[in-house]
Amino acid sequence: MAAAPKVEIAAQGAKSPRTLEFLKSGPKNLLINGKWVPAKSGKTFESINPANEEVLALVAEGGKEDIDEAVKAARAAFEEGPWSKLRPHDRTKYLLKVADLIERNREELAELSSLDNGAPIMGGQGLVTAANELFTYFAGWPTKIYGETSPSAPDMFNYTLREPIGVCGQIIPWNGPLMSASNKLAHALSTGNTVVLKPAEQACLVVLRLGELLMEAGIPEGVVNIVPGFGPVAGAALSNHPDVDKVAFTGSTTTGKEILKASVATLKHVSLELGGKSPHIIFADSDLEGALNYAAMGIFGNTGQACIAGSRIFVQEKVHDQFVEGLVNKAKQHKLGAQFEAGTTMGPVVSKVQHQRVLGYINAGKQEGAHTAIGGGPGPQPRGFFVQPTVFTGVRNDMKIAREEIFGPVAAVLPFKDENDAVFQGNDTTYGLAAGIWTRDISRAHKVARKLKAGMVWINCYMVLDFAMPFGGYKQSGQGREFSNHSIDMYTQVKSVFVKL
Ligand code: ADP
User: What does the alpha-carbon distance between residue 190 and residue 98 come to, in Å, rounded to a whole number?
Assistant: First the structure.
């Protein structure tokens, strides 16, 4: 039996009494069929604060049997339960209620979110805003999912219905768990599906708290089930489950391929939001100050743990040195620290595994001959998974640090000659999630935007999200689009009805 966590120490500096209350209220259980239950195996795992390596809480470790129970509950809620019988207007009301509860519990959710993955509290706050807006945006959809009447023979009346897919298995990562969970749930619920959600083992506390708010909002039992557990066990059980109709996954490209393979046996619908190695291209004629601000935010924001991180920064030769100097200054201005420490602008990476991984990439960069302009090692803190913001120059596109997703605060700066060179190098990657372009030449901006093989292109800005715009990747960065009208197709299927008159 594991010792009870020393919550005050682990949650160092959390201000909301409700945060401590939540963490202290015993092991966190699984949400199955509207009830909080321990794992059938009785096993728990430790949720660690990445800033000090202390245990925040013990969490029930979901396994195959728990996933089975959760899928059964989601199936019953979909087929017989109230969810499929609700008027769309009522689904809207539920989603608005969740959005409202998120806002009303802002402080606690922001703190839990930051404790979960180490992000400074400002980052946690931002995710609460995003979670609220996701539920609000998708609350508008239930009454706007139309079928159509189709031209047909004089003695026929043909129409289509757009119906939910059924039981959705949703598997999310740890880099922004509150936003990821809200995103996945809002998509599925607005379109009338039911859900088994598996949060990431590294950061699931805020997702469990969100589960409590869903229950408080009155979401009927079985409609949302939340089963934390490890990827190869609980995640694999969910993605292989024969009674799951759709799997929606956000995470690494490697795991995404496993999920796709697992879908084959029962031909599940699959949507994948995967990794990236996004080019951020700075032309010499750009607003360099703006470009610097966004380039720094694009790679150092959330400690570089973002699928859309602008991790390959291409700078036109003429302004290369000046730009590097500016980026190094931006890196210098970061203060590494714990979530609630005054002045913290950059938190740790999420786990020991990630820490070793990111430092391994930094070493690879050095060994391959890239120049470390700043950073290049762990943070000075004796505990916690800190990494110095790092800028590599002299990088070639064939180096490991330019090809593989690092998911840490590590910028690879590469020079380019002209427009063609920028496009060629920018596209020279297996990924295709996002891209940034900085130039004052409006026609070049649009031309380059067309030529870059990426799901999202930002011109004279970076990492701007709007839930009314589709989000997803080209190439090995994913399949399908989240947010916007495009996502509705991904969570519904079309039925053609033929009526003989
Ligand atoms: P990372 O390596 O950055 O943790 P992953 O893609 O492995 O990214 O993790 C994202 C999510 O996928 C997590 O919830 C994790 O538990 C889950 N996961 C990992 N491996 C598998 C797997 N084989 N099958 C299903 N889910 C998995």
Answer: 12
